[in-house]
Amino acid sequence: MAEPALKAEESRAPPSGRVIPSLAALVTPERLAALKEFCVELTDLSGLSPSQIVIGHGGGLVVVEQGVDGYDQIILTLAVERPGTAVIVISDQLPGHMVRALMKIEASDIVPAAASISEIIEAAHQLRETQTVQGGGATSKCWAFRGAVGGAGVSTLAIESAFSLARKVGPGKVCLVDLNVADGMTTSFLEAIPKLDLDALAAAPERLDPRLLAAWCWEHADGVSLIAAPRNPDADALASEAAVLRLLDVACGVFEYVIVDMPRHMMPWTKSVLAAVDEAIIISELTVPSLHAAADMCRETDVLRGDQSKAKLVLNRMFPKKRFRAEFAVDKAEQAIDRKIHTTVASDWDAARTAVNLGKPIADVKPKSQLVADVARMIDELVPAEMAEAAEKPKQRKRSK
């Protein structure tokens, strides 16, 4: 009975106003294909680990189908790690321990295996409304910045991106996480206090909750929160995959945007983070060795991310004409590495040096710097349209007054 109903739904256009903006699903291929007609952004969760699903889609809207490999682990993990996630389970007879797990999730529903796609979408809309009432309507975005070579300016771009984003969406919504736990520089650049207790996090990652996270956050006057640990040459050994994923998971539950400053060298958690974040941004310079390293890192990251958005390559420290030495232009660089360059960021050494000496973002020191404008353009391209519109509405109301 379910098969004809499913085919009928596939052939019908989605009703006006009933399209889901974002949905993550672990269902059969046939049902996944049918759901695409009703979703602006549909993510196939097959092939992702529960930890990757939690960090990438926890707090959002998830549909799982009983009988599909891994469905039970997703429910159990979300119940413990992200109970604020809205979960729909397609099942005729769910085991008792799965029902108990669903009871721990704040917004959940069970639909029968014979349910039509429109019935599933209707259940999704109802859960989204429940999330909005409970204050969980917005889905967080997590972006990871990683350098293809040493000294590419990753920390500077991560900092400037966080502050540019805060100016766009408002204070208190952006968190910068420095995962260079051994030798991170963000606290020095901003004259911040490193408050992350890495020993406590590593000893019991499951104990981290929003209240404890708040104690580990340092907030800048411009409205950006920073999570960073004191510099410690032995800290890399403490940064386990469980600890880092839990840290990012809770941060994504508290803040609308989380920007991650990642080390270039491989860590136990590097692949999991790159596979789970909404955007993986590779930073390089316009030199032949840097471009080759960046192209390799982008390809490796694309493999990890599967069907998700491809890694974005950003060229930093560009000179006015975006060329260097022997008239080596950006379009030639793209041809050489067979890769599109997402954007370029101008070099402004004087402004950057003054900013770090004063412990401020570059925009506070030299707001008309081309570097600041380039970062703002990059942020505009990365922010999803619906989130940008939501951030713009309060500003429009203020102007109207």
From TrEMBL:
Which top-level group of life is the source organism from? Bacteria
Question: Its GO CC terms?
Answer: cytoplasmic side of plasma membrane; cytosol
Which SUPFAM superfamilies has this protein been placed in? Answer: P-loop containing nucleoside triphosphate hydrolases
Q: Where is the signal peptide?
A: none
GO biological process annotation, one example: negative regulation of cell division
Q: Name one GO molecular function term.
A: ATP hydrolysis activity
**InterPro entries recorded:** P-loop_NTPase, ParA/MinD_ATPase
The protein's name in its UniProt record: Putative pilus assembly protein CpaE
